[in-house]
Amino acid sequence: MKAAVLREFGKDMPIEDVTLDDPKDREVLIRITAAGVCHSDLSVARGKGSMPLPCILGHEAAGVIEKTGPGVSRVKKGDAVVLSWTPYCGNCFYCRAGLPAQCEAYNRAAGQGALFDGTGRLKSASGERIYHFTCQSSFAEYAVMPETGVLPIHKEIPATVAALVGCAVTTGYGAVVNDAQARPGEYLAIWGLGGVGISALMAARLCNAEVIVVVDPNPRKEEVARRFGATHYINPKTTEDVPAKIRELTQGRGVDAAFDCIGRQAAFEQGYNSIRPGGKLVIVGQAPRGDVFTIPAARAFPAVQKRILGSYYGGGIPEQDFLRILDLYRIGKLELDAMVGKTVPLPGVNDAFRELESGIDTRTVLVFN
Ligand code: NAD
Ligand code: ZN
Known about the structure:
The protein is α/β, with parallel strands linked by helices. It is 29% helix and 24% strand.
């Protein structure tokens, strides 16, 4: 099969002929139909994560089941599926605690660039091992992953939309609905209007938030913010005191919840200083390794009862959220088609990364024939 192989951080990924072994016990082979290009892939490609190389990125995808390994019961050949980037074992402490994204088997495997049995299925034309990313590696024509990493969906759902549900949509929607538990009439603010931020914005609207402020330094995002239902836009580059501006828009109080959808120290601090007493700062963005952020440790923290929450894959049970989100899409409550930007074939992935770096309006999706 063809795949984009990350061989060197910061360099383009060549499209190579790659061998993919058959699925083993409780694994499936998926023909990839669409794969979104997420900032998390970009961060790894630029060396800001920790991944053994060479590897195949891609963790926001949809596909069709091509083959099932021994013991597979969740799907069958021909099923259209959304791929998850946290397949789970179902048996460990975290799976039993309702935190499948923390699954011990998954995190061990993902850390090693392998599948659950600690081995890989990917090899280069010369037979060298290629590492898996999030047990998925969907910047490729096919993928093998544990069966808990796929969820069957209606065939009529466009593959591009289904792919985005696999990461950006579930992440942004869940941050608002599961982690912040946003209520009608609340005041919310979102830092970073990429695929994740737009998804959080759509969820904020769905929750009937009264004020929804978007903070993004790219001036083109003002129009995008309004299009997806923001009530206010703030450019942090031209606004001296972002928290003060936000208080001005919220009766002097601050927002009920602030969402970092970029992973920058500046956004964490602005977010923390923009929430009202008792409010929540929900951190979704993945900051580069080594970054820290500081909050005043004296009176400010305990006395104002603020809460800081880490939000991972929407904070709920991702596959339950996939179904809920696709239902909301079907009945017209989430306009996910509007999130799909450019669609390009696999070799377009390197340009898609550069465009993501310089700032694009909506999500670029790789499409496969
Ligand atoms: P993106 O590149 O599409 O969008 C990022 C946006 O942030 C852009 O609009 C950019 O202009 C804006 N931005 C840059 N600096 C900013 C600043 N200082 N303040 C406010 N906005 C700023 O990114 P994406 O794909 O939407 O991903 C967003 C973040 O979420 C990334 O860090 C990604 O790794 C992370 N992520 C987290 C999870 C999770 O489960 N927690 C899942 C997916 C992605
Ligand atoms: Zn992602």
